[in-house]
TrEMBL record:
Gene Ontology MF terms: kinase activity
Record CDD domains: HATPase, HisKA
Domain of life per record: Bacteria
Keyword entries, A-Z: Kinase, Membrane, Phosphoprotein, Transferase, Transmembrane, Transmembrane helix, Two-component regulatory system
Residue segments, region Disordered: 456-477
Name used for this protein in its record: histidine kinase
Domain Histidine kinase: residue ranges: 258-453
Signal sequence annotation: none
Annotated localization: Membrane
Biased composition (Acidic residues): 456-468
Length: 477
């Protein structure tokens, strides 16, 4: 590790978002409770259970109330039939039978006069029958249900039973039903949530494992649970998908490597020939062709960078004067305006950093046009170096956003590799690359690198070389 250089960090959120859910944010296992599968299952389970429980409870309560009602009616009829039979069989003993038979009894003669009454109804004796055709009457603050029976030759027997116990039982049953309907759904929901959480724990763990996958870092298969269930089958399917992704990546890298290899040698010969012709003839058309050859060379370098991936590349660290980097960029992208402090030193891989900045400058020149301006500003702080590339073009398309840094995404008909490779190189150095539109117009890209933090005597360089000139661009790199 080079002293003063921070470890290479690789934020993988954007790549995972592109791989797992294009155009959307990274899936999070900590989703909102109302969007979780366990909540929907618990809610469905609770609703169905509550509806079923309501129907069953309503049926049970209705059956219970009807049975209680029937028992009350049967008891009232039995008492009435028993008393009516006693009056018929005992003859003149009706008075004693009537008063001893129950609390609510009346004997009504053929003229409608009450000739005998139980103690609780003594006030109605020797007076006209007061209740008419009513089957329920209030007696001393109690609701009494009554029936009539023929009482032999004496007339009519009126027998009543209090309904207080029946009404209280009915109210208790209805209160219990209402309480069950209010509390059961909540209890079922909490129970369903707990059961669903335990049942789906394996699925949540699988989602967390899959969420941590980063094909740019590792395609190691996910561990399988011991229990053979749907979660295990899901992980087996994910592992199979990872294998196919890895095989596809290997084929793509092999194909890109072959393309770059086939293009590298002819381009090298072409560049050398054009350089000699330009030096000998000074023809502007030859110079323009040499620039095109340079463009193709950098495109092959971008393709190789994409094929190898970030982890397969090794940075060759050197400490170089910033002015040597400026001179090289001035040759590669003529017409660039350089501002800022170029008398400092830079700890970097010169070839890779040149490739990244050249991509940014070429992108700005492409959008600004021949008559536009492209400016590269360098500023140093104790923490970092900051390269700012601004052009006078139309600016970045707002609909693309961060997609401009994805491979093969372009808003100007180019290959769409330059910005992606430039960001990759910046992050390999421990820095980053961002893009936005300048308030005064045009695009503005900011490439940051960590500060070298070198001592005055250079003892901290160790593995880094101090160069006055950057090394030659790697052939086919």
């Amino acid at each position: 590790m080079i002293p003063g250089a921070r470890p290479v960090t690789t934020p993988a959120g954007a790549r995972r978002a592109a791989l797992l859910t294009p155009g959307a944010g990274l899936y999070s296992a900590r989703v909102a409770w109302r969007h979780s599968l366990r909540f929907r299952l618990a809610l469905t389970y609770s609703a169905l259970s509550a509806a079923l429980l309501m129907l069953i409870t309503l049926g049970v309560v209705s059956l219970l109330l009807s049975r209680m009602e029937q028992q009350f009616v049967d008891r009232l009829n039995d008492r009435a039939d028993t008393l009516a039979a006693a009056f018929t069989n005992l003859g003149g003993g009706f008075g004693k039978s009537a008063t001893g038979a129950g609390a609510y009894t009346l004997v009504i003669d053929l003229d409608g006069q009450v000739i005998a009454a139980s103690p609780a109804l003594r006030e109605f004796q020797n007076s006209p029958y007061p209740f008419g055709t009513l089957s329920r009457v209030p007696v001393q603050g109690t609701t009494v249900r009554a029936v009539k029976r023929k009482a032999g030759n004496f007339g009519t027997l009126w027998v009543g039973l209090p309904e207080d116990d029946l009404i209280a039982a009915r109210q208790s049953a209805l209160s219990a039903l209402l309480l069950a309907l209010l509390t059961a759904p909540l209890i079922l929901l909490l129970t369903g949530w707990w059961v669903g959480r335990r049942a789906l724990a394996g699925l949540e763990g699988a989602a967390n494992l899959a969420d941590r996958l980063d094909p740019a870092v590792s395609l190691a298969p996910l561990p399988l649970p011991a229990r053979e269930d749907e979660v295990q089958r899901l992980l087996v399917a994910i592992n199979s998908l990872l294998g196919r992704i890895e095989a596809q990546q290997a084929r793509e890298k092999q194909l890109l490597g072959q393309i770059v290899h086939e293009l590298g040698a002819p381009l090298t010969v072409l560049k050398a020939s054009l350089s000699r012709a330009e030096a000998r003839l000074g023809d502007p058309e030859v110079a323009r062709a040499a620039l095109v050859a340079d463009e193709l060379t950098f495109t092959t370098q971008d393709l190789m960078q994409l094929a190898r991936g970030q982890l397969e590349l090794k940075l060759a660290w050197h400490y170089i004067p910033a002015r040597t980097l400026r001179e090289r960029l001035d040759r590669l992208v003529p017409g660039t305006t350089f501002t800022g402090d170029w008398d400092i030193g830079i700890l970097c891989d010169p070839d890779r950093l040149t490739q990244a900045l050249r991509n940014l400058l070429a992108n700005g020149r492409r959008h600004a046009g021949a008559d536009g301006t492209v400016t590269l500003d360098l500023r140093e702080t104790p923490e970092q170096l900051c390269f700012r590339v601004r052009d006078s073009g139309p600016g970045l398309p707002p609909e693309l956003g961060e997609q401009i840094f994805e491979p093969f995404v372009s808003g100007a008909g180019s290959s769409g590799l330059g910005l992606s490779v430039a960001r990759q190189i910046a992050r390999m150095h421990g820095g980053d690359l961002s893009g936005t539109n300048h308030p005064d117009g045009g695009a503005l890209f900011t490439l940051t690198l960590p500060g070298a933090a070198l001592g005055d005597d250079g003892d901290d360089l160790d593995d880094a070389d101090v160069l006055d000139e950057p090394p030659l661009t790697r052939s086919g790199a």
